[in-house]
């Protein structure tokens, strides 16, 4: 739904202002979530979604600074609740917008997705988008593993306790070959040439 070919604003948040295309609605109805709905925790989250969002996204982030270190309630609400929520939304949306327009393309120079440093930092690792689109099966979404990638750390933590398994990765040899074949070898990053 957030096609970068329709421009930065559309890819960032404009897609939320448009009606969904009938094909998107139809395809969405055909996605089966029955396996997820067998999980009692998922059913609980689905049933009480609005209440959980209000408590964990706005109420608790405002109450904790107010109670624990004497911040005014409104400062805590607007900074820890509203500002944090807006910041998180925009950092997430940068994956769909900025990471499809600006940055290095060390793995495939023929596609829009790129390695965007601002998005890497702001979305805590989700900005390695050229890698992600080139190797979509790699759970780590980056060649750099856990560096700047909280999502990979989170999945690895659950792998360590047995909750995540069969994690697929890409071999260093395959990465090197792909860089040589389709990567932009003229581009350099903090780790030297990407070739």
Automatic annotation (TrEMBL):
A single GO BP: unsaturated fatty acid biosynthetic process
Cofactors that this protein relies on: Fe(2+)
Locations listed in the record: Membrane
UniProt membrane topology term: Multi-pass membrane protein
Entry GO CC: endoplasmic reticulum membrane
UniProt entry keywords in alphabetical sequence: Fatty acid biosynthesis, Fatty acid metabolism, Iron, Lipid biosynthesis, Lipid metabolism, Membrane, Metal-binding, Oxidoreductase, Transmembrane, Transmembrane helix
Annotated GO MF terms: iron ion binding; stearoyl-CoA 9-desaturase activity
InterPro entries in alphabetical order: Acyl-CoA_DS, FADS-1_CS
UniProt feature, compositional bias: Basic and acidic residues: 180-189
Notes concerning its domains: The histidine box domains are involved in binding the catalytic metal ions.
Family of this protein: Belongs to the fatty acid desaturase type 1 family.
Protein name from the UniProt record: Uncharacterized protein
Lineage: Eukaryota, Metazoa, Ecdysozoa, Arthropoda, Chelicerata
């Amino acid at each position: 739904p957030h096609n970068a070919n329709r421009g930065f604003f559309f890819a960032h948040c404009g897609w939320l202002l448009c009606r969904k295309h009938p094909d998107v609605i139809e395809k969405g109805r055909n996605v089966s979530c029955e396996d997820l709905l067998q999980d009692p925790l998922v059913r609980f989250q689905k049933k009480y979604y609005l209440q959980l969002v209000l408590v964990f996204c706005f109420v608790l982030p405002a109450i904790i600074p107010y109670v624990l270190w004497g911040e005014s309630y409104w400062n805590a609400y607007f900074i820890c609740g509203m500002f944090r929520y807006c910041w998180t939304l925009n950092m997430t949306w940068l994956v769909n917008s900025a990471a499809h327009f600006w940055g290095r393309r060390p793995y495939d120079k023929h596609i829009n997705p790129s390695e965007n440093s601002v998005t890497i930092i702001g979305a805590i690792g989700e900005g390695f988008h050229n890698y992600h689109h080139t190797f979509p099966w790699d759970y780590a979404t980056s060649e750099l593993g856990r560096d700047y990638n909280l999502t990979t750390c989170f999945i690895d933590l659950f792998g360590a306790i047995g909750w995540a398994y069969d994690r697929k990765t890409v071999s260093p040899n395959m990465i090197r070959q792909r860089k040589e074949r389709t990567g932009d070898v003229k581009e350099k990053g903090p780790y030297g040439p990407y070739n």
